[in-house]
Amino acid sequence: MTRTRTGATLLALPLLLTACAGPPVEVKPVPPSPTSPPSSTPPIPAGPVLTRLADTLGDAPADTTSGRYQYIERRTWYRQIIGPPGPNGWPERVRIDQLWRTDDAADGRLVSVDVDGGRCTPDGGSGSWAGRTGDPFDQPPPRQPAALRTRLLMAAGPGETRPQDIVGGIAMLYERHAPTRPVRTAILRLLAAQPGILAQTGVTDRVGRPGVDVILPYTSRTGVPRHDILTIDDRSGVLLAAYSVITGPIPPQDPHLGPDFAEMIIADAAGYRLYVDSRRTPNTRTPSAGCQHPTLQPGTGQRPAVATGGSARPDSRPSDGSSPPDQGLDPAAPGSSSPRSPSAGTRRRKARR
């Protein structure tokens, strides 16, 4: 039996930092994300934007579909860390995860595949899935902001109340659930109440879906300046994407963490999670799974359809199957043995935020 295991933080490794030594790694402040078109507005305080969206929330597929199972589909661009990095870092990979689950997490199915250069390879088979007793993220999410905040912070550890844990918890929630309107409303109101969060309207995700970037600027426990970003549909409030960027130089790190530790931080921050679909479905065979998915059949050019509202639109990547540039570590591979650990065959040293 396989099951989803994800972490509470967004796209960063857990941090273990002792003394700092060694030269800094120069990382130029990251320019605006390529998902933000020229028409996007400058970031502003998120509270009013998210409150207005919560007050006017439209339908999502999870509200208008029916069936025994929730269906959640995600694509993750990441760097596969094996051995030392090459001239361009570690190789890029794309992983597709499909999860069917009942509301009580008693029954389900998990299918994962890797897509590389026009090839689709099953990863981990097509196993059954069941939630873990006592795992709060496998249980139905609360519909009130205060209760939801408590649930999201459970994975962060005792005493943790950082906004980045809430932002990361929301990304994890969307990996296990197809949230209905009451839950999405609670998520938006919870985000609106977090200190320091910004909103940038007029953006699109990697496949062109319009939305709002919810941006959390902060400095990690390793001293790295970062932005954790959630791209949210500007009508339904559904999470479209989650990613992180480094916005300044990486300070000296503990040499005991290894010579490639700073490069790992960079690779981790280059990750991108695209939430393709979240709806209800009558069985665990709808839609087709893995390499049999219609968008992964020969002749489709590896262009995954993305559902928004009642429609689906194709991925805007080149039809030759090439991937967007520089998209980081797999942040949360379902079926892994520990939070945030990668799929089989991937090795990496652990670090802490």
Q: What's the arrangement of secondary structure elements?
A:
Layout: E1 44-45, H1 46-55, H2 61-64, E2 69-79, E3 92-101, E4 108-116, E5 119-128, H3 145-153, H4 163-176, H5 181-192, E6 198-204, E7 210-219, E8 225-233, E9 239-246, H6 261-269, E10 272-281, E11 305-308, E12 311-314
Antiparallel strand pairs: 1-6, 2-3, 2-10, 3-4, 4-5, 6-7, 7-8, 8-9, 9-10, 11-12
Keywords:
353 residues, alpha+beta, ten-stranded antiparallel beta sheet, two-stranded antiparallel sheet, 6 helices, 12 strands, 27% strand, globular, disordered N terminus, disordered C terminus
Could you explain the architecture of this structure?
With 353 residues, this protein is an alpha+beta fold. It is built from six helices and twelve strands. The chain has a ten-stranded antiparallel β-sheet. The chain has a two-stranded antiparallel sheet with strand order 11-12. The protein is globular. The model is unreliable at 1-9, 11-34 and 299-353 (pLDDT under 50).
Residue-averaged pLDDT: 76
Q: Cα-atom Rg, whole angstroms?
A: 19 Å
Major β-sheet, in short?
10 strands, antiparallel
H/E element order: EHHEEEEHHHEEEEHEEE
Helical percent range? Answer: 10-25%
Work out the helix count: 6
The largest sheet has its strands arranged as 1-6-7-8-9-10-2-3-4-5
Topology, number of strands: 12
Uncertain ranges: 1-9, 11-34, 299-353
- Overall shape: it is globular
In whole angstroms, the N-to-C terminal distance is 31 Å
Structural class category? alpha+beta
- Portion in strands: 25-35%
